[in-house]
Amino acid sequence: MIKALTENDSLFWTGYNTCNLDLMSRFLSNDMEFYHDQGGIILGIEGMKKSMQENICNDPNHKVRRELVPGTFQLFLLKDNNTIYGAILSGEHYFYNSHAGGNETKDGIAKFTNLWLLRDGNWKMNRILSFDHKGLN
Q1: How much is the pTM?
Q2: Which of 3, 9, 49, 58, CA to CA, is 20 to 30 A from 125?
């Protein structure tokens, strides 16, 4: 069960990093909410896809990549009467930017806390908090 959750989380971020919005969306609940300390609130899968298309995925010559900061990942299971119904995943991630020519720079760091819910045997990300964004000196 935990293996399926961490695999889904990894696939979600693969979708994010490659702008594969269909792959990314497979792991979002229909009523997902995304809270960003600089970009505001995004509601629902279609809202998330639209935001990605208009921002991170709008320029084929500019790519954004998210990478987990080693040693920061934490997973906390949520239970109701000893039955797992969800999990909180948290940690920090770096953001890299690359431009035409392939030069990539590590430009920022942020914290995340994500709520995953287990519904009908499937893990779906339901609430996403992305905060404390900072540039790197």
Answers
A1: 0.92
A2: 58
